[in-house]
Amino acid sequence: MNLLPSGICFYLSVAICWLTSRVDGSWWYMGTLGSQVMCDNIPGLINKQRQLCRQHPKVMQAIGAGIKDWIGECQHQFQNHRWNCNTMARDHNLFGRLLLRSSREAAFVYAISSAGVVHTLTRACSQGELQSCSCDPTKKGSSRDAKGTFDWGGCSDHVEHAMRFSQSFIDAKERKERDARALMNLHNNRAGRKAVKRFMSLECKCHGVSGSCSVRTCWLALADFRRTGDHLRRRYNGAVQVAMNQYGTGFTTAQRHFKRPSKNDLVYFEDSPDYCIRDQESGSVGTGGRVCNRTSRAVDSCEVMCCGRGYDTTRVSRTTKCECKFHWCCAVHCRDCNQEMDVHTCKAQT
Fold it and tell me: CB–CB of 61/118 below 8 Å?
């Protein structure tokens, strides 16, 4: 069974770097012809994606502008681990050859990027940045929750619209391939989209005499993307290793005692490398030069992070604010203090 994708999907390929370099929006004002020319030259798109790109250039611009948010969230979630969601500035895609391996890290990247696209487009719709969408038009009239009746008002975030567009655009290449890796990507893409919707919350404003809340006006709002990132990180920890079923139409667990994956789980085929040393084939950049915590016993410890190679210690001086005092009414004055501290970094492989 070939588990390598015949082509990394658009938003993880050189196309995403291409979009990121053009998020200033200058070329989107070239008109319909300009949009068509640029969409035709984005690498990695299939015909359906090019068509959607031509029809919705502002949406493409919003996706490009939001890329840094989900990459930043990925790097936050793994900042103290051997694999820290590092990106490659000069590779054929943002994560190098890492994504050619059907590992749980690849599963997380697909899920967090799919979630990031949904979150970005939902927010852009509510903020009036796109002509193709706005607030959720279905949230009208009255409804009920555990606290009683309320009136829909304000601007409910239209997450369903963002999910539909994201699915149509992002999943297009995977649906065309339909091999084992494509099915894995589709599953993790969907898990990412569902994670954003999972944390939509009902926010309300009370009306009535003396704040009695006799009438409530409510709307559905996106949660901070950190909640989605935290959720997907937990799913990464509990990701299910799977194999293709005998019909090639779905998954079965790789081991009998493993749980059957739900639609919210992340799935992967291959074991991960240890990420200790630089290995171009696996996409590992190694941990040489990474900062570690000498006193920790967790994954950020020098013992774990440096994979037994040892670490170097450097004495550095850092300036911090100290002896801060509050002055009436509205000022805080601090001194600049120099602090000497040791920084430990993993030795490179020999």
Answer: no
The number of domains in the chain is: 2
For residues 224 and 86, membership in a common domain is answered with: yes
Q: Please give the full DSSP string across 169-191, using - where no structure is assigned.
A: HHTHHHHHH-SHHHHHHHHHHHH
Question: Are 138 and 66 members of one domain?
Answer: yes
**Backbone phi, then psi, for 312, in 5-degree steps?**
-105, 150
Instruction: Specify the CATH number for the domain of residue 296.
Output: 3.30.2460.20
- Within 10 A of 205 (CB to CB), how many other CB atoms are there? 13
Looking at the fold, whether 226 and 311 belong to one and the same domain comes out as no
The residues, ordered by sequence, that sit 6+ positions from 121 with a Cβ below 8 Å of its Cβ are: 59, 62, 63, 66, 130, 133, 161, 162, 165, 166
CB 19 within 8 A of CB 63: yes
Q: What is the pLDDT along the chain (350 residues), one digit of tens a residue?
A: 333 333 333 444 434 444 544 444 443 444 455 667 778 877 778 899 889 988 898 898 888 888 889 999 999 999 999 999 987 755 456 787 888 899 999 999 999 999 999 999 999 999 999 999 999 999 999 999 998 999 999 999 999 999 999 999 999 988 888 789 999 999 999 999 999 999 999 999 988 777 678 889 999 999 999 999 999 999 999 999 999 888 878 888 888 777 888 999 999 999 999 999 998 888 889 999 999 999 999 999 999 999 999 999 999 998 989 999 988 888 899 999 998 999 999 999 87
Q: Report the distance separating Cα 156 and Cα 154, nearest Å.
A: 6
In terms of DSSP bridges, do strands 251-253 and 267-268 run parallel, antiparallel, or are they unpaired?
unpaired
Range of the domain at 36: 10-279
308: CB partners within 8 A, 6+ apart: none
Length of the chain measured in residues: 350
- Closest among 172, 207, 201, 200 to 186, alpha carbons compared: 172
Distance CA 155, CA 125 (A): 10
